[in-house]
Amino acid sequence: MDTRLLDRACLLALCSCAAIACGSDERPDPTTVKLADGQVHGIVTEASRQFLGIPYAKPPVGDLRWKAPQPPDPWKDVRDATQFGKRCAQIANPTVQNLASNDEDCLYLNVWTPFPTPKQAVPVMVWIHGGGNVNGSASEPVPFINIGLFYSGQFLAENHDVIVVSLNYRLGLFGFFAHP
């Protein structure tokens, strides 16, 4: 076989492989991210990514009820992060419509990031809901507006290049009970 033909065949094969690799549409899935405890699958809009209901501690139930929060157990499967976590157990509030989701297993956080990811570092804003340490939630409907709006970091992430984090925390007796 002519060496020039072999050289051309090798060059063609090399160029073909390079073209396939460069032309590949395989990019990391922007809706799934890897965290220290496992992967989460969120929501991507035109200008932001949302990851809702991510556990930041073990459920504070049973032996953990009156103890400081413990790190969450890692998970193997991709965790759905498209809905807010449960609201913490609290006194009934007549302005809140969905009290059915109150639970002691409520230590979840929500993250909104700009999309596509900025090339430089952006500020992180942590928002902690009000409620006098006895009621409220990171997924609270906006008071007195019955149109389905929730406290959300989406607007800030999309329009101000900031990462927004909101979280639930134990309320009332479960969160602020003073031991001697």
- Report the helical percentage: 10-25%
Tally the beta strands. Answer: 10
Count of helical regions: 3
Provide the residue-averaged pLDDT: 77
Indicate how many domains the architecture comprises: 1
Sheet with the most strands: spatial strand order? 3-4-8-10-9
Question: What is the overall silhouette?
Answer: globular
3D architecture notes:
- With 180 residues, the chain is an alpha/beta fold.
- It has one domain.
- It has three helices and ten strands; from the N terminus they run αβββββββββαβα.
- Strands 3-4-8-10-9 form a five-stranded mixed sheet, covered by helices on one side. Strands 1-2-5 form a three-stranded mixed sheet, with no helix packed on it. Strands 6-7 form a two-stranded parallel sheet.
- Strand 3 and strand 4 form a beta hairpin.
- The termini are far apart.
Topology diagram in text:
Elements: H1 3-23, E1 32-34, E2 39-41, E3 43-44, E4 48-55, E5 79-80, E6 87-88, E7 102-103, E8 108-114, E9 124-128, H2 154-160, E10 163-167, H3 172-176
Parallel strand pairs: 2-5, 6-7, 9-10
Antiparallel strand pairs: 1-2, 3-4, 4-8, 8-10
